[in-house]
Amino acid sequence: MPSRSRAQWPPSRRNNSRHGAFVKRSLRPREFRTNYQGLHIPRLNKERFMNEAEPLRFIRSHTDIPVPTVYCDFQEDEAYYLITEYVEGVGMSALSEDEKATSAGHPGLVIPPYRALRLADVDAWSLRPADQEEYVFCHNDLSQQNVIVNPETLQINAVIDGQYAGFYPPRFEWPFFNRLGPSVAIHGEIDDASDILEFLTLQVRITLQRDAVRIG
Hints:
Blueprint: E1 15-18, E2 21-25, E3 33-35, E4 38-40, H1 47-62, E5 70-76, E6 79-85, E7 90-91, H2 97-102, H3 114-117, E8 136-138, E9 147-149, E10 156-159, E11 166-168, H4 193-215
Antiparallel strand pairs: 1-2, 2-6, 3-4, 5-6, 7-9, 8-11, 9-10
């Protein structure tokens, strides 16, 4: 039987829980670490936290999907803070296979799914406005560790860690929760990261062309 230690959001020394709330924040520049390649600056360090707050508010207001309540988010001392409800439970990855079978962004900010972002060198993205209903809300990181489950009732308590969430084509939402592992293709799975990156790159070009026409 897998360990059933209480689950939180992905482990980080900058995350902690207190008084029924969960606090996470971006690293401050003075906390960036140096490795053999030099200073490591986290990609979209603040923006990922900004993007996570708005989708959580949207989901709570417009759906019945269980997600933590956002208490507040703000910037202070060169760090961006996100304070939410602390959700008790274990990650879906801690359940047995039988138990798994039983269990039931910031405005204008575009952050691609991690599986595509890791292939890109740029951090500024855009999506053209849709004339038809071609975009749906996607979490984009639905791995088992981000699905918090009551270990006794096997009910889903919350879906967490929506740093890459937003409105995208339906194909962006890959069901990573169907197996153990990260939100990237593994073990012979079809890797769609390059296709997603190509789509997003095209969107940036279309947006730039549209803006150029307006200015002209």
